[in-house]
Design brief:
16% helix, 5-stranded antiparallel β-sheet
Length: 494
């Protein structure tokens, strides 16, 4: 699911040592540039024509670039045994959607890094850190009943029993309440009224149903024989209509996009099914369908990075933004006609690779050294095991040069502090930039505390396993401050 590179404003970033999971700092750094989620590459040549799966082939919904933490105050993260809490900024991030539009988000993955300028995409809850989180619906309730959805701060303060709320303290209180449910951490707001808001939101929250996608096409690949309709591809959207367009090669082959009745269509509403109508005389080939819509993204949609391990976000507010989704079709007169898709399966801890075959002979493909055969008219799903937070590169090969590759990183669980961090033998610098003074090196004050204060609050001495040169390199990479937190991945059911 993911893609590109950072630039822009400084955002607080947090990287952790290997305590509790046996992962090294170097591995975490490497993860910043690793592919995260599901990216399809390669060519479908077995059906007679190549289908290049571009980097955005996987996209379903809005894609946006992180612009930074815009409205925030201070939160206090409490670790058992620490004398002082870790001071950190808490509030609203802002992202700029591809094609126009602004998204406002909160973090739901506290201990993972936030990479400045990272690009994010809209993602279902079950393919994000909200998977198996029984309180995911409560986070949605908080988003709907607090800032910025509720902009009457006087009324919000009254409900919370607070004296006064500003945008900064309202944002901090909302983020604190969300972290209590998303990361199950002991966190409070530094401001008294922000803390009252956090307590109110946590207490009153009710579980709500996951919002539907701004725009999605499913399945992402279909196949069949010429001389009929290939599909269906189902459209899911919160927009009144999504615009539909076929690639230029489809027009050259005489392929049309039609509805279930065979009527040509250029738009589709939520729930509509569309088909590729391929003429009987069409040469073996392929075509791509692109759906687009200008619509506010529904509050509560998760956003995960296209590349790397930047924190998972959840949508708190949206202007009208561009949403996009792509699906492909392949056809051939004789032989196997395969369509292969892949989906991260957080419940099974892996990636589901599904191959269907609409041809007139079996399709045999090789996956991870094992051959699998899909009979004519059948389908087969193989789950490839992938470790949590591990990169994968899955290639499917078949006859006549068939090849399809899916790359990503499985990231289905939030991270929590390790109760028994391993002490480090390395000295800890006073700040990520190497400064020994108390000045703020983040490019902006993070809730009024200095970098030195923040590092001291994390136990930033010999008990925090980081290396000065690594920290400086990370600052250069992300353009922001770097804080190291002791962490491990939460196990399922925690």
């Amino acid at each position: 699911m993911r893609k590109p590179r950072p630039e822009g404003n400084s955002v607080f970033a947090k990287f952790s040592a290997s305590a509790g999971r046996g992962r090294s700092t170097a591995r975490r750094i490497a993860a910043v540039t690793a592919v995260t989620g599901l990216v399809a590459t390669g060519a479908l040549t077995g059906a007679g024509a190549a289908v290049a799966s571009e980097g955005d082939q996987h996209v379903n919904g809005a894609v946006a670039k992180l612009d930074g933490l815009k409205i925030h105050d201070t939160a206090l993260l409490h670790y058992p045994g620490d004398k002082q809490p870790f001071k950190m900024p808490a509030g609203v991030f802002e992202l700029t959607a591809d094609g126009g539009g602004t998204l406002k988000t909160y973090c739901i993955d506290l201990h993972n890094p936030t990479q400045d300028g990272a690009r994010y995409q809209e993602t279902p809850w079950d393919q994000s850190t909200l998977n198996k989180n029984e309180n995911a619906g409560k986070i949605l309730w908080i988003l709907q009943n607090s800032f910025p959805q509720v902009d009457n701060l006087a009324e919000l303060a009254e409900k919370a029993g607070a004296k006064k709320l500003t945008e900064k303290t309202a944002a901090a209180g909302t983020q604190v309440a969300i972290w209590r449910y998303s990361d199950k951490v002991e966190v409070t707001a530094a401001d008294e009224d922000a803390e009252k808001l956090a307590d109110y939101l946590e207490k009153e929250a009710k579980n709500l149903a996951e919002p539907k996608a701004s725009l999605a096409l499913a399945p992402k690949a279909v196949s069949g024989k010429p001389g009929g309709r290939i599909g269906p591809v189902t459209v899911t959207t919160n927009a009144a209509q999504a615009a539909l367009a076929l690639s230029d090669d489809a027009a050259g082959a005489g392929v049309k996009l039609v509805d279930a009745a065979g009527k040509p269509v250029t738009t589709a509403a939520n729930g509509a099914q569309v088909f590729f109508d391929v003429p009987a005389g069409a040469a073996d080939g392929s075509a791509t369908l692109t759906a687009q819509a200008e619509t506010p993204v529904p509050i509560g949609r998760a956003f995960t990075p296209l590349v790397g391990t930047s924190q998972t976000m959840i949508l708190a507010g949206s202007s009208r933004s561009n949403a996009k989704s792509i699906a492909s079709a392949t056809w051939a007169k004789t032989g196997p006609v395969p369509a292969v898709t892949a989906k991260e399966n957080c419940d099974k801890g892996g990636v589901d690779v599904t191959a269907s075959n609409k041809g007139d002979s079996p399709f045999t493909f090789t996956l991870k050294g094992t051959e699998h055969t899909v009979p004519a008219g059948g389908s087969k799903t193989v789950t490839v095991p992938v470790g949590e937070d591990q990169a994968y590169d899955i290639t499917i090969t078949g006859p006549n040069g068939f090849k399809e590759t899916f790359k990503g990183v499985l990231d289905c669980k939030t991270s929590t502090p390790s109760p028994n961090p391993n002490p480090s033998s390395q000295p800890t610098p006073a700040s990520a930039g190497g400064s020994t003074g108390g000045s703020d090196t983040t490019g902006g004050n993070t809730g009024g505390s200095s970098s030195k204060d923040n590092l001291a609050a994390t136990g930033g001495s010999s008990s925090t396993p980081i290396i000065a040169g690594v920290a400086i390199a990370l600052v250069a990479l992300g353009g922001g401050a770097v804080f190291f937190l002791r962490k491990k991945k939460a196990t399922a059911g925690e």
